[in-house]
Amino acid sequence: MLIAIHPDNPQARLIEQIVNILKKGGVIIYPTDTIYGIGCDITQKDAIEKICKIKNIVPKKANLSFICKDLSDLSAYTRNLATPTFRILKNVLPGPYTIILEASRQVPKLLATKKDTAICQAIVAALGNPLLTTSLPMEEDVEYYTDPEIIYELFGNQVDVVIDGGIGGIIPSTIIDCTNGIPELIREGLGKWEF
User: Fold this and answer.
1) What phi and psi, each to the nearest 5 degrees, are found at residue 36?
2) CA–CA distance from 20 to each of 15, 40, 49, 117 (Å)?
3) Residue-wise pLDDT tens digits, 4-47
4) Furthest-apart CA pair in the chain: how many Å?
5) Strand pairing of 2-4 and 131-135?
6) What are the distances in angstroms from CA 190 to CA 8, 24, 37, 64, 97?
7) Which of 154, 132, 159, 129 is nearest to 144 (CA)?
8) pLDDT value at position 110?
9) Contact 64, 133 (CB under 8 A)
10) How many angstroms separate the CA atoms of 179 and 183, rounded?
């Protein structure tokens, strides 16, 4: 199913439809502030495994990310969130960053390994828990992971919904590892590295 959702003003009834699909173990493809991502409800083990199968990765070795509603929601899913790290998070989020933190026991064991757009924020707020997220499997052809209609043609039979929020970007998020107390750049992407 291909669903067009307004990127700046997501329609509540469509967000509710997406959340119902996620709560039943569905997998979605959706726009972020960087590139299109593929995601599911973090509590749905079968959906996580389905995403890993699509990406041809092993869940425990995948280093998958998830999107929280806000920083207060994040505190339930991480341990040892030191003040300097919290300041970094507060300065860069929401934004084109992926921050690696030490997971708490709230994170499903299947995931425990070493821009939120308006659409993402609306989904996560309505879902009530984090949205597992990862990038689409990428190849040389940039067009296929920026155009939601082409994404639907390629992945529509593997996921429950592709959300059309307009043409996506081509630069992924900047990844920063904060597990050792000192921010370490893992990948420079759209977010500026200024630490």
Assistant:
1) -70, 140
2) 9, 11, 19, 20
3) 999 889 999 999 999 999 999 999 999 988 889 999 998 898 99
4) 45
5) unpaired
6) 20, 33, 15, 19, 8
7) 154
8) 54
9) yes
10) 8
Question: What is the sign, positive or negative, of the torsion defined by CA atoms of 25, 31, 32, 38?
Answer: positive
Residues 6+ apart with CB under 8 A from 51: 27, 38, 39, 40, 64, 132, 134
* N-term to C-term CA, the chain: 42
Place of tokens 């994040």: 74
Pick from 39, 34, 28, 22: nearest CA to 5: 28
Looking up tokens 């009834």 gives: 13
Low-confidence ranges of the chain (pLDDT < 70): 80, 103-104, 106-117, 139-144, 195
pTM, 2 dp? 0.82
C-alpha–C-alpha distance, residues 120 and 30, integer Å: 8
